[in-house]
Amino acid sequence: MRTSIRKTKTMTCLLANSLFVKSSIASFQSPKPSLYLSDAFCTFPTGFCNSNPRCSRRWFCSSSRTMEWISYLSQLEAAEIDETLMGPLGFSVDQLMELAGLSVATAIAEVYRSSEYSRVLAICGPGNNGGDGLVAARHLHHFGYKPSICYPKRTPKPLYTGLVTQLESLSIPFLSVEDLPSDLSNEFDIMVDAMFGFSFHGTPRPPFDNLIQRLASLHNYDQTHQKSPVIVSVDIPSGWHVEEGDISGEGIKPDMLVSLTAPKFCAKKFRGPHHFLGGRFVPLTIVDKYKLCLPPYPGTSMCVRIGKPPQVDISALRENYISPAFLEEQVEADPFNQFHKWFDDAVAAGLREPNAMALSTAGKDGKPSSRMVLLKGVDKDGLVWYTNYESKKAHQLSENACASILFYWDGLNRQVRVEGSVEKVSEEESEQYFHSRPRGSQIGAMVSEQSSVVPGREAFHRKYKELEDQFSDGSLIPKPKHWGGYRLKPELFEFWQGQPSRLHDRLQYSLVEFITNKFSFLVTSLKELKIAVFFSELIKVGVCSRKSQKLFHSKILVLLLLQAICYTEISEYLHAWRR
Ligand SMILES: NC(=O)C1=CN([C@@H]2O[C@H](COP(=O)(O)OP(=O)(O)OC[C@H]3O[C@@H](n4cnc5c(N)ncnc54)[C@H](OP(=O)(O)O)[C@@H]3O)[C@@H](O)[C@H]2O)[C@@H](O)CC1
Ligand SMILES: [K+]
Hints:
Largest sheet: 8 strands, antiparallel
Number of helices: 14
Strand content: 15-25%
Radius of gyration: 33 Å
Helix content: 25-40%
Bound molecules: ligand NPW, potassium ion
Protein backbone atom coordinates (compact mmCIF):
# COMPACT_ATOMS: atom_id res chain seq x y z
CA MET A 1 0.00 0.00 0.00
CA ARG A 2 1.34 3.43 -0.95
CA THR A 3 1.51 5.83 1.96
CA SER A 4 2.93 9.01 0.50
CA ILE A 5 2.06 12.29 2.16
CA ARG A 6 1.31 15.40 0.12
CA LYS A 7 1.80 18.72 1.85
CA THR A 8 -0.30 21.70 0.86
CA LYS A 9 0.45 25.32 1.63
CA THR A 10 -1.78 25.28 4.65
CA MET A 11 0.20 22.42 6.19
CA THR A 12 -2.75 20.16 5.60
CA CYS A 13 -1.47 16.79 4.54
CA LEU A 14 -3.49 14.37 2.55
CA LEU A 15 -2.71 10.75 3.25
CA ALA A 16 -2.86 8.85 0.01
CA ASN A 17 -5.15 5.82 0.16
CA SER A 18 -6.82 7.29 3.18
CA LEU A 19 -9.97 9.27 3.66
CA PHE A 20 -8.40 11.18 6.52
CA VAL A 21 -6.90 14.63 6.26
CA LYS A 22 -4.02 15.19 8.64
CA SER A 23 -3.56 18.74 9.86
CA SER A 24 -1.66 20.47 12.63
CA ILE A 25 -4.27 21.48 15.14
CA ALA A 26 -3.63 23.97 17.90
CA SER A 27 -4.39 22.59 21.30
CA PHE A 28 -3.20 23.69 24.68
CA GLN A 29 -6.04 22.50 26.84
CA SER A 30 -5.61 18.76 26.87
CA PRO A 31 -3.46 17.31 29.68
CA LYS A 32 -0.87 16.21 27.15
CA PRO A 33 -0.79 18.93 24.48
CA SER A 34 -0.05 17.40 21.11
CA LEU A 35 0.48 19.80 18.29
CA TYR A 36 0.98 17.26 15.59
CA LEU A 37 -1.39 14.43 15.08
CA SER A 38 1.49 12.37 13.71
CA ASP A 39 3.23 12.46 17.11
CA ALA A 40 0.25 10.98 18.86
CA PHE A 41 0.88 7.59 17.31
CA CYS A 42 4.57 7.38 18.12
CA THR A 43 5.30 5.00 20.97
CA PHE A 44 9.05 5.56 21.21
CA PRO A 45 10.90 8.55 22.49
CA THR A 46 12.22 10.37 19.43
CA GLY A 47 15.36 12.48 19.30
CA PHE A 48 19.05 12.22 18.75
CA CYS A 49 21.11 9.60 20.45
CA ASN A 50 21.44 11.31 23.83
CA SER A 51 24.36 9.42 25.23
CA ASN A 52 26.64 10.53 22.48
CA PRO A 53 26.25 14.12 21.29
CA ARG A 54 28.67 13.41 18.45
CA CYS A 55 26.48 10.63 17.17
CA SER A 56 24.39 12.13 14.40
CA ARG A 57 22.14 9.13 13.99
CA ARG A 58 18.58 9.88 14.77
CA TRP A 59 16.23 7.68 16.73
CA PHE A 60 12.99 7.40 14.96
CA CYS A 61 9.92 5.27 14.63
CA SER A 62 9.99 3.55 11.31
CA SER A 63 6.86 2.09 9.83
CA SER A 64 7.65 -1.24 11.47
CA ARG A 65 8.06 0.69 14.74
CA THR A 66 11.61 -0.51 15.38
CA MET A 67 14.58 1.47 16.58
CA GLU A 68 16.92 2.04 13.72
CA TRP A 69 20.32 2.24 15.41
CA ILE A 70 21.94 0.76 18.45
CA SER A 71 25.50 -0.29 19.18
CA TYR A 72 26.40 -3.91 19.88
CA LEU A 73 29.46 -4.99 21.84
CA SER A 74 31.85 -7.87 21.34
CA GLN A 75 32.88 -10.03 24.31
CA LEU A 76 36.23 -8.28 24.44
CA GLU A 77 34.70 -4.79 24.37
CA ALA A 78 32.24 -5.73 27.13
CA ALA A 79 35.08 -6.97 29.35
CA GLU A 80 37.18 -3.86 28.57
CA ILE A 81 34.31 -1.53 29.44
CA ASP A 82 33.84 -3.44 32.68
CA GLU A 83 37.49 -2.94 33.56
CA THR A 84 37.48 0.74 32.64
CA LEU A 85 34.37 1.43 34.68
CA MET A 86 35.80 -0.27 37.73
CA GLY A 87 39.31 1.04 37.17
CA PRO A 88 39.99 4.59 36.04
CA LEU A 89 36.35 5.64 36.14
CA GLY A 90 36.05 4.95 39.85
CA PHE A 91 32.99 2.71 39.98
CA SER A 92 32.78 -0.22 42.36
CA VAL A 93 31.36 -3.57 41.33
CA ASP A 94 28.71 -3.33 44.06
CA GLN A 95 27.45 -0.07 42.61
CA LEU A 96 27.20 -1.33 39.06
CA MET A 97 25.61 -4.58 40.17
CA GLU A 98 23.01 -2.73 42.21
CA LEU A 99 22.09 -0.57 39.20
CA ALA A 100 22.10 -3.56 36.84
CA GLY A 101 19.88 -5.63 39.17
CA LEU A 102 17.51 -2.71 39.63
CA SER A 103 17.25 -2.30 35.84
CA VAL A 104 16.34 -5.96 35.49
CA ALA A 105 13.69 -5.73 38.22
CA THR A 106 12.12 -2.57 36.76
CA ALA A 107 12.07 -4.05 33.24
CA ILE A 108 10.29 -7.13 34.61
CA ALA A 109 7.81 -4.98 36.52
CA GLU A 110 7.12 -2.95 33.37
CA VAL A 111 5.98 -6.02 31.44
CA TYR A 112 4.89 -8.65 33.96
CA ARG A 113 2.60 -7.42 36.72
CA SER A 114 3.06 -8.90 40.17
CA SER A 115 -0.70 -9.54 40.37
CA GLU A 116 -0.37 -12.08 37.56
CA TYR A 117 3.29 -13.13 37.67
CA SER A 118 4.15 -13.16 41.34
CA ARG A 119 6.17 -16.39 41.69
CA VAL A 120 9.73 -15.78 40.52
CA LEU A 121 12.67 -18.17 40.45
CA ALA A 122 16.06 -16.50 40.00
CA ILE A 123 18.72 -18.99 38.91
CA CYS A 124 22.05 -17.37 39.69
CA GLY A 125 25.49 -18.28 38.36
CA PRO A 126 28.92 -17.95 39.98
CA GLY A 127 29.92 -14.56 38.49
CA ASN A 128 28.60 -11.00 38.31
CA ASN A 129 25.66 -12.08 36.17
CA GLY A 130 24.59 -14.21 39.13
CA GLY A 131 25.08 -11.16 41.38
CA ASP A 132 22.73 -9.14 39.14
CA GLY A 133 20.16 -11.89 39.60
CA LEU A 134 20.48 -11.73 43.42
CA VAL A 135 20.03 -7.95 43.39
CA ALA A 136 17.07 -8.15 40.99
CA ALA A 137 15.38 -10.71 43.25
CA ARG A 138 15.69 -8.35 46.24
CA HIS A 139 14.12 -5.47 44.32
CA LEU A 140 11.39 -7.73 42.98
CA HIS A 141 10.57 -8.71 46.55
CA HIS A 142 10.13 -5.03 47.42
CA PHE A 143 7.99 -4.54 44.28
CA GLY A 144 5.53 -7.14 45.58
CA TYR A 145 6.76 -10.33 43.84
CA LYS A 146 7.54 -13.60 45.64
CA PRO A 147 11.05 -14.57 44.57
CA SER A 148 12.92 -17.79 45.31
CA ILE A 149 16.60 -18.29 44.55
CA CYS A 150 18.57 -21.16 43.15
CA TYR A 151 22.26 -20.36 43.69
CA PRO A 152 24.18 -23.61 43.36
CA LYS A 153 27.78 -22.29 43.10
CA ARG A 154 28.09 -19.59 45.71
CA THR A 155 31.02 -17.21 45.53
CA PRO A 156 32.64 -16.73 48.95
CA LYS A 157 33.40 -13.01 48.41
CA PRO A 158 31.91 -10.43 50.85
CA LEU A 159 29.84 -8.83 48.05
CA TYR A 160 28.03 -12.09 47.36
CA THR A 161 27.71 -13.29 50.94
CA GLY A 162 26.28 -9.86 51.75
CA LEU A 163 23.69 -10.19 48.97
CA VAL A 164 22.74 -13.65 50.27
CA THR A 165 22.36 -12.32 53.84
CA GLN A 166 20.15 -9.48 52.59
CA LEU A 167 17.90 -11.95 50.80
CA GLU A 168 17.77 -14.32 53.76
CA SER A 169 16.80 -11.45 56.05
CA LEU A 170 13.78 -10.92 53.80
CA SER A 171 12.91 -14.64 54.25
CA ILE A 172 13.43 -15.25 50.54
CA PRO A 173 13.82 -19.03 50.13
CA PHE A 174 17.00 -20.54 48.65
CA LEU A 175 16.42 -23.81 46.80
CA SER A 176 19.13 -26.29 45.93
CA VAL A 177 19.07 -27.87 42.46
CA GLU A 178 17.72 -31.04 44.07
CA ASP A 179 14.96 -29.06 45.81
CA LEU A 180 13.66 -27.63 42.56
CA PRO A 181 10.25 -29.02 41.63
CA SER A 182 10.32 -31.51 38.78
CA ASP A 183 7.83 -29.40 36.84
CA LEU A 184 8.92 -25.77 37.04
CA SER A 185 5.81 -24.71 35.07
CA ASN A 186 3.49 -25.37 37.97
CA GLU A 187 5.50 -23.54 40.59
CA PHE A 188 6.77 -20.38 38.93
CA ASP A 189 5.50 -17.54 36.73
CA ILE A 190 8.87 -15.97 35.92
CA MET A 191 12.29 -17.62 35.58
CA VAL A 192 15.16 -15.14 35.88
CA ASP A 193 18.11 -16.54 33.98
CA ALA A 194 21.15 -14.99 35.71
CA MET A 195 23.59 -17.87 35.19
CA PHE A 196 26.11 -16.46 32.75
CA GLY A 197 26.85 -13.09 31.22
CA PHE A 198 29.51 -11.81 28.87
CA SER A 199 32.35 -13.90 30.38
CA PHE A 200 30.74 -17.19 29.40
CA HIS A 201 32.85 -19.43 27.17
CA GLY A 202 32.79 -23.00 25.93
CA THR A 203 29.89 -25.22 26.89
CA PRO A 204 28.06 -25.09 30.22
CA ARG A 205 29.44 -27.25 33.01
CA PRO A 206 27.32 -28.99 35.69
CA PRO A 207 25.02 -28.16 37.31
CA PHE A 208 24.29 -25.33 34.89
CA ASP A 209 24.14 -27.59 31.84
CA ASN A 210 21.12 -29.31 33.31
CA LEU A 211 19.51 -26.07 34.52
CA ILE A 212 19.92 -24.50 31.08
CA GLN A 213 18.36 -27.56 29.50
CA ARG A 214 15.41 -27.37 31.85
CA LEU A 215 14.83 -23.74 30.94
CA ALA A 216 15.30 -24.46 27.24
CA SER A 217 12.71 -27.19 27.33
CA LEU A 218 10.15 -25.11 29.22
CA HIS A 219 8.65 -23.49 26.18
CA ASN A 220 9.55 -21.05 23.52
CA TYR A 221 8.01 -17.75 22.69
CA ASP A 222 6.19 -18.81 19.55
CA GLN A 223 4.17 -21.31 21.53
CA THR A 224 2.46 -18.88 23.83
CA HIS A 225 0.95 -21.17 26.39
CA GLN A 226 -0.78 -19.31 29.22
CA LYS A 227 0.59 -21.56 31.96
CA SER A 228 4.27 -21.65 31.00
CA PRO A 229 6.53 -19.40 33.04
CA VAL A 230 8.23 -16.62 31.12
CA ILE A 231 12.03 -16.55 30.92
CA VAL A 232 13.90 -13.32 31.55
CA SER A 233 17.59 -13.44 30.65
CA VAL A 234 20.00 -11.04 32.27
CA ASP A 235 22.44 -9.49 29.76
CA ILE A 236 22.84 -12.68 27.71
CA PRO A 237 20.71 -15.83 27.44
CA SER A 238 22.83 -18.27 29.46
CA GLY A 239 24.63 -20.81 27.33
CA TRP A 240 24.48 -18.61 24.21
CA HIS A 241 27.75 -17.67 22.55
CA VAL A 242 28.35 -14.03 23.51
CA GLU A 243 28.70 -13.01 19.87
CA GLU A 244 27.18 -15.80 17.79
CA GLY A 245 24.10 -16.49 19.88
CA ASP A 246 22.33 -19.84 20.18
CA ILE A 247 24.67 -21.84 17.98
CA SER A 248 23.05 -25.24 18.53
CA GLY A 249 19.54 -23.83 18.19
CA GLU A 250 18.57 -25.77 21.29
CA GLY A 251 19.40 -23.18 23.89
CA ILE A 252 17.23 -20.98 26.04
CA LYS A 253 14.70 -18.87 24.11
CA PRO A 254 13.91 -16.08 26.53
CA ASP A 255 10.74 -14.03 26.42
CA MET A 256 12.64 -11.04 27.74
CA LEU A 257 16.25 -10.01 27.43
CA VAL A 258 17.62 -7.19 29.56
CA SER A 259 20.91 -6.12 27.97
CA LEU A 260 23.22 -4.23 30.30
CA THR A 261 25.36 -1.21 29.36
CA ALA A 262 24.87 -2.03 25.64
CA PRO A 263 23.60 -5.19 23.93
CA LYS A 264 26.19 -7.80 23.04
CA PHE A 265 26.35 -9.15 19.48
CA CYS A 266 24.33 -12.23 20.39
CA ALA A 267 21.36 -9.98 21.16
CA LYS A 268 20.88 -9.54 17.40
CA LYS A 269 19.62 -13.12 17.41
CA PHE A 270 17.11 -12.53 20.19
CA ARG A 271 13.61 -13.15 18.84
CA GLY A 272 11.54 -12.77 22.02
CA PRO A 273 8.92 -10.07 22.43
CA HIS A 274 10.63 -7.90 25.05
CA HIS A 275 14.14 -6.51 24.63
CA PHE A 276 15.19 -3.91 27.20
CA LEU A 277 18.37 -2.02 27.91
CA GLY A 278 19.45 -1.37 31.49
CA GLY A 279 22.50 0.03 33.28
CA ARG A 280 21.87 3.74 33.19
CA PHE A 281 25.36 4.65 34.29
CA VAL A 282 27.41 4.79 31.10
CA PRO A 283 29.65 7.86 31.21
CA LEU A 284 30.53 9.93 28.14
CA THR A 285 34.14 8.68 28.16
CA ILE A 286 32.89 5.17 27.43
CA VAL A 287 30.32 6.36 24.92
CA ASP A 288 33.02 8.26 23.04
CA LYS A 289 35.67 5.60 23.18
CA TYR A 290 33.39 2.87 21.86
CA LYS A 291 31.34 5.22 19.65
CA LEU A 292 28.22 3.99 21.31
CA CYS A 293 24.76 4.85 20.10
CA LEU A 294 22.29 4.13 22.86
CA PRO A 295 18.65 5.06 23.20
CA PRO A 296 17.55 7.79 25.59
CA TYR A 297 16.08 6.51 28.85
CA PRO A 298 12.62 7.92 29.44
CA GLY A 299 12.25 10.20 32.47
CA THR A 300 13.73 8.64 35.57
CA SER A 301 13.41 5.08 34.30
CA MET A 302 16.17 2.54 34.90
CA CYS A 303 15.40 0.70 31.68
CA VAL A 304 14.30 1.39 28.14
CA ARG A 305 12.62 -0.85 25.65
CA ILE A 306 14.68 -1.49 22.52
CA GLY A 307 13.63 -3.38 19.45
CA LYS A 308 10.21 -4.04 18.17
CA PRO A 309 7.40 -4.04 20.70
CA PRO A 310 5.30 -7.21 20.74
CA GLN A 311 2.22 -7.63 18.62
CA VAL A 312 -0.65 -7.50 21.03
CA ASP A 313 -3.80 -9.52 20.66
CA ILE A 314 -6.24 -6.79 21.63
CA SER A 315 -9.05 -9.26 22.21
CA ALA A 316 -6.93 -11.02 24.83
CA LEU A 317 -6.26 -7.88 26.86
CA ARG A 318 -8.33 -8.07 29.98
CA GLU A 319 -8.07 -7.26 33.65
CA ASN A 320 -9.88 -9.03 36.47
CA TYR A 321 -10.72 -6.21 38.87
CA ILE A 322 -10.14 -7.03 42.52
CA SER A 323 -11.72 -4.34 44.67
CA PRO A 324 -13.91 -4.10 47.75
CA ALA A 325 -17.68 -4.31 47.18
CA PHE A 326 -19.43 -0.98 46.68
CA LEU A 327 -22.74 -1.25 48.48
CA GLU A 328 -25.79 0.99 48.52
CA GLU A 329 -25.73 1.25 52.30
CA GLN A 330 -22.15 2.60 52.21
CA VAL A 331 -22.75 5.53 49.90
CA GLU A 332 -23.36 9.12 50.86
CA ALA A 333 -26.90 10.46 50.52
CA ASP A 334 -25.53 13.45 48.63
CA PRO A 335 -23.84 12.57 45.30
CA PHE A 336 -21.44 15.52 45.65
CA ASN A 337 -20.21 14.12 48.96
CA GLN A 338 -19.77 10.72 47.35
CA PHE A 339 -17.81 12.33 44.52
CA HIS A 340 -15.55 14.18 46.98
CA LYS A 341 -14.96 10.94 48.88
CA TRP A 342 -13.82 9.09 45.76
CA PHE A 343 -11.84 12.03 44.47
CA ASP A 344 -9.93 12.21 47.78
CA ASP A 345 -9.23 8.46 47.48
CA ALA A 346 -7.80 9.02 43.99
CA VAL A 347 -5.54 11.80 45.29
CA ALA A 348 -4.45 9.72 48.30
CA ALA A 349 -3.63 6.78 46.00
CA GLY A 350 -1.14 9.05 44.21
CA LEU A 351 -2.83 8.65 40.82
CA ARG A 352 -1.46 10.92 38.15
CA GLU A 353 -3.86 13.74 37.27
CA PRO A 354 -6.90 12.46 39.16
CA ASN A 355 -8.70 15.56 37.87
CA ALA A 356 -8.32 14.49 34.21
CA MET A 357 -11.75 13.79 32.78
CA ALA A 358 -13.14 12.88 29.38
CA LEU A 359 -15.66 15.48 28.28
CA SER A 360 -18.18 14.44 25.64
CA THR A 361 -20.23 16.96 23.75
CA ALA A 362 -22.36 16.94 20.62
CA GLY A 363 -23.58 19.86 18.54
CA LYS A 364 -26.91 20.08 16.78
CA ASP A 365 -25.79 17.49 14.22
CA GLY A 366 -25.82 14.99 17.11
CA LYS A 367 -22.30 13.73 16.37
CA PRO A 368 -20.47 13.35 19.68
CA SER A 369 -16.81 14.09 20.32
CA SER A 370 -14.72 13.46 23.42
CA ARG A 371 -11.49 14.87 24.74
CA MET A 372 -9.63 15.02 28.04
CA VAL A 373 -9.87 18.21 30.07
CA LEU A 374 -8.89 19.03 33.63
CA LEU A 375 -11.41 19.55 36.41
CA LYS A 376 -10.62 22.84 38.11
CA GLY A 377 -13.35 23.00 40.71
CA VAL A 378 -16.39 21.26 42.17
CA ASP A 379 -18.91 23.23 44.15
CA LYS A 380 -22.59 23.08 45.01
CA ASP A 381 -23.41 24.22 41.49
CA GLY A 382 -21.38 21.72 39.53
CA LEU A 383 -18.06 20.77 37.96
CA VAL A 384 -15.86 23.45 36.42
CA TRP A 385 -13.16 23.40 33.72
CA TYR A 386 -11.58 26.06 31.55
CA THR A 387 -10.99 26.16 27.84
CA ASN A 388 -11.01 28.20 24.69
CA TYR A 389 -14.46 29.54 23.82
CA GLU A 390 -13.64 29.11 20.13
CA SER A 391 -12.80 25.43 20.40
CA LYS A 392 -14.89 22.65 18.92
CA LYS A 393 -16.34 21.73 22.31
CA ALA A 394 -17.36 25.35 22.84
CA HIS A 395 -19.15 25.42 19.46
CA GLN A 396 -20.91 22.18 20.27
CA LEU A 397 -21.93 23.41 23.72
CA SER A 398 -23.35 26.60 22.23
CA GLU A 399 -25.64 24.43 20.10
CA ASN A 400 -26.40 21.78 22.70
CA ALA A 401 -25.75 22.39 26.38
CA CYS A 402 -25.97 18.70 27.35
CA ALA A 403 -22.64 17.06 28.12
CA SER A 404 -21.18 14.03 29.82
CA ILE A 405 -18.02 13.82 31.92
CA LEU A 406 -16.11 10.65 32.74
CA PHE A 407 -13.41 10.14 35.34
CA TYR A 408 -11.42 6.90 35.17
CA TRP A 409 -9.28 6.12 38.20
CA ASP A 410 -7.30 3.15 36.96
CA GLY A 411 -5.42 2.22 40.13
CA LEU A 412 -8.68 2.07 42.09
CA ASN A 413 -10.78 0.29 39.43
CA ARG A 414 -13.22 3.17 39.62
CA GLN A 415 -15.13 5.27 37.17
CA VAL A 416 -17.51 8.18 37.71
CA ARG A 417 -19.93 9.43 35.08
CA VAL A 418 -21.58 12.81 35.47
CA GLU A 419 -24.21 14.06 33.04
CA GLY A 420 -26.01 17.35 32.94
CA SER A 421 -26.29 20.72 31.27
CA VAL A 422 -23.43 23.13 30.81
CA GLU A 423 -23.21 26.88 31.16
CA LYS A 424 -20.36 29.38 31.09
CA VAL A 425 -18.95 30.51 34.43
CA SER A 426 -18.96 34.25 35.15
CA GLU A 427 -16.25 36.48 33.66
CA GLU A 428 -15.03 37.25 37.20
CA GLU A 429 -14.59 33.55 37.96
CA SER A 430 -12.67 33.01 34.71
CA GLU A 431 -10.53 36.11 35.37
CA GLN A 432 -9.71 34.92 38.86
CA TYR A 433 -8.69 31.45 37.72
CA PHE A 434 -6.79 32.73 34.66
CA HIS A 435 -4.50 34.87 36.81
CA SER A 436 -3.84 31.97 39.19
CA ARG A 437 -2.30 29.95 36.34
CA PRO A 438 1.46 29.83 35.64
CA ARG A 439 2.41 32.75 33.38
CA GLY A 440 3.52 30.30 30.68
CA SER A 441 0.01 28.83 30.54
CA GLN A 442 -1.49 32.32 30.43
CA ILE A 443 0.65 33.18 27.41
CA GLY A 444 -0.20 29.79 25.92
CA ALA A 445 -3.90 30.67 26.11
CA MET A 446 -3.18 33.91 24.22
CA VAL A 447 -1.24 32.09 21.52
CA SER A 448 -3.60 29.18 21.07
CA GLU A 449 -6.22 29.39 18.39
CA GLN A 450 -7.64 26.09 19.45
CA SER A 451 -9.12 23.64 16.97
CA SER A 452 -7.95 25.72 14.01
CA VAL A 453 -5.32 24.63 11.53
CA VAL A 454 -2.03 26.31 12.42
CA PRO A 455 0.70 27.33 9.98
CA GLY A 456 3.28 25.25 11.87
CA ARG A 457 5.07 24.74 15.13
CA GLU A 458 7.65 27.49 14.45
CA ALA A 459 5.04 30.21 13.97
CA PHE A 460 3.45 29.11 17.18
CA HIS A 461 6.69 29.28 19.13
CA ARG A 462 7.61 32.64 17.58
CA LYS A 463 4.32 34.15 18.76
CA TYR A 464 4.83 32.64 22.21
CA LYS A 465 8.35 34.09 22.42
CA GLU A 466 7.13 37.55 21.37
CA LEU A 467 4.49 37.56 24.09
CA GLU A 468 6.94 36.19 26.63
CA ASP A 469 9.27 39.14 25.88
CA GLN A 470 6.37 41.57 25.99
CA PHE A 471 5.37 40.44 29.48
CA SER A 472 8.88 39.78 30.79
CA ASP A 473 8.55 42.77 33.14
CA GLY A 474 6.02 40.80 35.20
CA SER A 475 3.06 42.98 34.15
CA LEU A 476 -0.45 41.56 34.23
CA ILE A 477 -1.21 39.28 31.29
CA PRO A 478 -4.77 40.07 30.18
CA LYS A 479 -7.17 37.17 29.91
CA PRO A 480 -8.08 36.68 26.27
CA LYS A 481 -11.78 37.25 25.51
CA HIS A 482 -11.98 33.79 23.97
CA TRP A 483 -10.86 32.00 27.11
CA GLY A 484 -12.99 31.02 30.11
CA GLY A 485 -14.72 28.37 32.13
CA TYR A 486 -17.71 26.10 31.90
CA ARG A 487 -19.76 24.52 34.63
CA LEU A 488 -21.69 21.27 34.26
CA LYS A 489 -24.76 21.13 36.48
CA PRO A 490 -25.23 17.44 37.21
CA GLU A 491 -28.50 15.66 36.63
CA LEU A 492 -26.98 12.21 36.94
CA PHE A 493 -24.02 10.71 38.80
CA GLU A 494 -22.97 7.13 38.27
CA PHE A 495 -20.30 5.54 40.45
CA TRP A 496 -18.71 2.37 39.09
CA GLN A 497 -16.48 -0.01 41.02
CA GLY A 498 -14.86 -2.83 39.03
CA GLN A 499 -15.36 -6.31 40.48
CA PRO A 500 -14.08 -9.81 39.70
CA SER A 501 -15.59 -11.68 36.73
CA ARG A 502 -17.20 -8.52 35.32
CA LEU A 503 -19.82 -8.40 38.13
CA HIS A 504 -19.21 -4.69 38.66
CA ASP A 505 -21.02 -2.47 41.13
CA ARG A 506 -22.77 0.59 39.68
CA LEU A 507 -24.73 3.05 41.73
CA GLN A 508 -26.65 5.91 40.20
CA TYR A 509 -28.02 9.16 41.57
CA SER A 510 -30.56 10.47 39.09
CA LEU A 511 -32.27 13.76 39.70
CA VAL A 512 -34.80 13.26 36.90
CA GLU A 513 -35.67 9.69 37.82
CA PHE A 514 -36.20 10.48 41.47
CA ILE A 515 -38.40 13.50 40.78
CA THR A 516 -40.37 11.59 38.11
CA ASN A 517 -41.06 8.71 40.52
CA LYS A 518 -42.15 11.03 43.27
CA PHE A 519 -44.43 13.03 40.98
CA SER A 520 -46.10 9.95 39.59
CA PHE A 521 -46.76 8.87 43.20
CA LEU A 522 -48.26 12.28 43.94
CA VAL A 523 -50.53 12.11 40.89
CA THR A 524 -51.77 8.61 41.79
CA SER A 525 -52.34 9.47 45.42
CA LEU A 526 -54.19 12.66 44.44
CA LYS A 527 -56.54 10.59 42.27
CA GLU A 528 -57.14 8.21 45.20
CA LEU A 529 -57.70 11.18 47.47
CA LYS A 530 -60.36 12.57 45.12
CA ILE A 531 -62.17 9.22 45.10
CA ALA A 532 -61.99 8.95 48.89
CA VAL A 533 -63.37 12.51 49.29
CA PHE A 534 -66.17 11.73 46.81
CA PHE A 535 -67.19 8.65 48.79
CA SER A 536 -67.01 10.46 52.12
CA GLU A 537 -69.42 13.08 50.59
CA LEU A 538 -71.81 10.26 49.64
CA ILE A 539 -71.64 9.09 53.24
CA LYS A 540 -72.67 12.56 54.42
CA VAL A 541 -75.90 12.31 52.41
CA GLY A 542 -76.54 8.91 53.94
CA VAL A 543 -75.70 6.63 50.99
CA CYS A 544 -73.10 4.63 53.00
CA SER A 545 -72.90 3.24 56.53
CA ARG A 546 -71.07 4.90 59.47
CA LYS A 547 -68.49 2.09 59.40
CA SER A 548 -67.46 2.89 55.79
CA GLN A 549 -67.40 6.60 56.65
CA LYS A 550 -64.65 5.89 59.27
CA LEU A 551 -62.77 3.82 56.71
CA PHE A 552 -62.74 6.62 54.13
CA HIS A 553 -61.73 9.20 56.70
CA SER A 554 -58.72 7.17 57.76
CA LYS A 555 -57.82 6.57 54.08
CA ILE A 556 -57.91 10.32 53.45
CA LEU A 557 -55.67 10.89 56.48
CA VAL A 558 -53.14 8.27 55.34
CA LEU A 559 -53.04 9.71 51.80
CA LEU A 560 -52.53 13.24 53.10
CA LEU A 561 -49.73 12.02 55.33
CA LEU A 562 -48.03 10.15 52.46
CA GLN A 563 -48.26 13.22 50.25
CA ALA A 564 -46.70 15.39 52.93
CA ILE A 565 -43.84 12.89 53.27
CA CYS A 566 -43.39 12.86 49.50
CA TYR A 567 -43.23 16.69 49.32
CA THR A 568 -40.65 16.73 52.14
CA GLU A 569 -38.56 14.05 50.39
CA ILE A 570 -38.56 16.00 47.12
CA SER A 571 -37.54 19.22 48.80
CA GLU A 572 -34.83 17.48 50.88
CA TYR A 573 -33.50 15.70 47.79
CA LEU A 574 -33.36 18.90 45.74
CA HIS A 575 -31.70 20.64 48.64
CA ALA A 576 -29.09 17.87 49.01
CA TRP A 577 -28.47 17.81 45.25
CA ARG A 578 -27.89 21.53 45.03
CA ARG A 579 -25.90 21.79 48.29
N1 LIG B 1 30.15 -3.37 33.10
C1 LIG B 1 29.08 -4.07 32.87
O1 LIG B 1 28.69 -4.14 31.79
C2 LIG B 1 28.40 -4.70 33.99
C3 LIG B 1 28.25 -6.09 34.05
N2 LIG B 1 27.52 -6.69 34.96
C4 LIG B 1 27.27 -8.12 34.89
O2 LIG B 1 28.41 -8.84 34.92
C5 LIG B 1 28.37 -9.86 33.93
C6 LIG B 1 29.71 -10.33 33.62
O3 LIG B 1 30.17 -10.87 34.80
P1 LIG B 1 31.42 -11.83 34.90
O4 LIG B 1 32.54 -11.24 34.16
O5 LIG B 1 31.62 -12.12 36.33
O6 LIG B 1 30.97 -13.11 34.11
P2 LIG B 1 29.76 -14.07 34.12
O7 LIG B 1 29.30 -14.18 32.73
O8 LIG B 1 28.77 -13.69 35.13
O9 LIG B 1 30.28 -15.49 34.55
C7 LIG B 1 31.55 -15.73 34.93
C8 LIG B 1 31.56 -17.04 35.72
O10 LIG B 1 31.03 -18.06 34.91
C9 LIG B 1 31.94 -19.14 34.85
N3 LIG B 1 31.87 -19.78 33.53
C10 LIG B 1 32.23 -19.30 32.34
N4 LIG B 1 31.97 -20.18 31.38
C11 LIG B 1 31.45 -21.27 31.98
C12 LIG B 1 31.01 -22.53 31.51
N5 LIG B 1 31.07 -22.85 30.22
N6 LIG B 1 30.50 -23.40 32.39
C13 LIG B 1 30.46 -23.10 33.71
N7 LIG B 1 30.89 -21.92 34.21
C14 LIG B 1 31.38 -21.02 33.35
C15 LIG B 1 33.25 -18.53 35.11
O11 LIG B 1 34.13 -19.51 35.62
P3 LIG B 1 35.57 -19.76 34.95
O12 LIG B 1 35.31 -20.15 33.54
O13 LIG B 1 36.23 -18.44 35.04
O14 LIG B 1 36.11 -20.82 35.75
C16 LIG B 1 32.92 -17.48 36.14
O15 LIG B 1 32.82 -18.05 37.41
C17 LIG B 1 27.62 -9.20 32.83
O16 LIG B 1 27.13 -10.10 31.87
C18 LIG B 1 26.56 -8.51 33.59
O17 LIG B 1 25.53 -9.37 33.87
C19 LIG B 1 26.83 -5.91 36.02
O18 LIG B 1 26.88 -6.59 37.20
C20 LIG B 1 27.39 -4.54 36.22
C21 LIG B 1 27.81 -3.82 35.02
K1 LIG C 1 22.10 -14.64 31.79
